[in-house]
Amino acid sequence: MKNPGKILQTGMAFWASKALLSAVEMGIFTELAKGPAPFEKLSGRIGLHPRSARDFLDALVALEFLERNGDVYSNTPETDHFLDKRKPSYVGGILEMANHRLFGHWNRLTEALRTGLPQNESREHGKGVFESLYADPARLKEFLSAMTGVSRGSNMVIASTFPWRDHGTFVDIGTAQGDLAVQIAKANPHLSGKGFDLPEVAPVFEEYVLENGVSDRLSFQPGNFFEDDLPKADVVLMGHILHDWDLQTKKMLISKAYEALPDGGSLVVYEALIDDERSKNAFGLLMSLNMLIETPGGFDFTGKDCKSWMMEAGFSSTRIEHLAGPDSMVIATK
Ligand SMILES: C[S@@+](CC[C@H](N)C(=O)[O-])C[C@H]1O[C@@H](n2cnc3c(N)ncnc32)[C@H](O)[C@@H]1O
Fold it and tell me: Which is the closest atom of ligand 1 to the Cα of 175?
C-alpha cells in the first residue's frame, strides 16, 4: 500500500530540526546536565514563555532528546554526553552554526539550484566563506569548533585505526581547531604533528591543543595552500577540505600533498563520501548541496572519483575505509 508518511515527515522535518537547534541555542541540555529539573524551574531558568513551554519541552521528549518522569525533565544519555557545553564530548558547535547560519541560508536553496551561486554571507560581501567568517573572531571560533563537532567521531577512528606505528610525523591540512591532530597525538604518543591553516586560526588551535595537553608534540603552521607548499610529513591528512573547492583546486591540493610526502608516505582524505552508485549516502549528497550554498565551486564526490584523482597525481595505491556515520577515508600511498 502506498503511504505518504515519508514524504510528509521529510517535508516537515524542519520543525524537528529547528526545535532541536533552538534547544541547543537556549542551553537546555547544558542546564539539565547539572541535574534533572521540574517544569517550572526549568522553563524559568531558560526563559520560556508559558504559552508554549510545555509543548516545546514535551516535543523534545517525543523526539527522544529529553526524558520526563512525572513533571521532572532530564537529558537522555546521548544529549547529556554530546550536548552539554561543559563536556569535552560536546558536538553542538555544528548545530550552533546550523542555527545561526545554515538554517537561513538553506531557505534560498531553489535560487542556488537555479543560478549555481552560493547563498551565504558572500551574497552581501562578495567574499569567500572563509574570508567573511574570519573577519569576525566570534564567528571564526564558532565555525572552527563546529568543525570539531562534525568531525570528532571520524577523528577518533582515524586516530585508532590508521597504521600509525609505521610513521613518525603527520600534518593536518585545514586543521581548524585541531581536533584530528589532537586525537591522533593523544592515541599515539610516538607521533609529532602539525596543524596547517590560515594564520587567523592560530590562537584557536593553540588554545585547544593546550587544553588537551598535547602542545609538546603539536604545533601550528600558518599558511595558505593556494600560495604555499604543504609542510613535509610522513602522513598528510585532509578532512572536509577537498569538498570546499572546484575540481582544478582539488587536483592541485592532491598534487601538493604528493610533493610533501616521502616514498611510502600516505595521503588521507576524509569526507562524507558519496557512494559510487550515487544513490545511498543521502548525507553526502546533501553535503554537496551545502557546498553549493556555501562556496562558488565546491562539491562532494565518490570514493571512485577521489581514487582516480590520486592515481592521476602519481600515487601508487589507494584504498577506502569507513569511519563514523556518513564519513569514509581514502588512503593513498606514494
Ligand atoms: C571545512 S573546514 C574543515 C576543518 C577540519 N579539517 C575538519 O574536517 O573538521 C576547512 C578548513 O580549511 C581551512 N582553509 C580554507 N582556506 C584555506 C587556505 N587557503 N589555506 C589553508 N587552509 C585553508 C579553513 O580555515 C578551515 O579550517
Answer: 6
Question: What pLDDT, in 10s, does the model give residues 323-333?
Answer: 988 999 999 99
Who lines ligand 1 at CB under 6 A?
130, 147, 151, 174-176, 197-198, 201, 224-226, 239-241, 244
Edge-to-edge strands of the sheet including 72-75? 37-38, 72-75, 66-69
Residue nearest to atom 18 of ligand 1 (CA): 224
Q: Is 243 a catalytic residue?
A: yes
User: Measured between alpha carbons, how far is residue 313 from residues 96, 101, 210, 293, 333 in Å?
Assistant: 38, 36, 36, 29, 11
- Pairing of the two strands 218-222 and 192-197: parallel
CATH of the structural domain 93-333, one choice from 3.10.450.30, 3.40.50.150, 3.40.50.80, 3.40.50.300:
3.40.50.150
Cell triple for 297:
565551486
Instruction: Look at residue 66 in the predicted model and tell me its pLDDT.
Output: 98
For 96-146, the pLDDT digits (tens) are: 989 999 999 999 999 999 999 999 988 887 777 788 778 888 888 888 888
- Cell 590560515, located at residue: 198
Mutate to test the pocket of ligand 1, among 122, 127, 134, 147 (most ligand atoms within 8 A of CB): 147
* Domains in the chain: boundaries: 5-82, 93-333
Ligand 1 atom closest to Cα of residue 225 = 20
Class of domain 5-82: mainly alpha
Give every residue of the chain whose pLDDT is below 50, as ranges.
Answer: none
Query: What distance in angstroms lies between residue 271's CA and the mean position of ligand 1's atoms?
Result: 13
Give the pTM.
Answer: 0.92
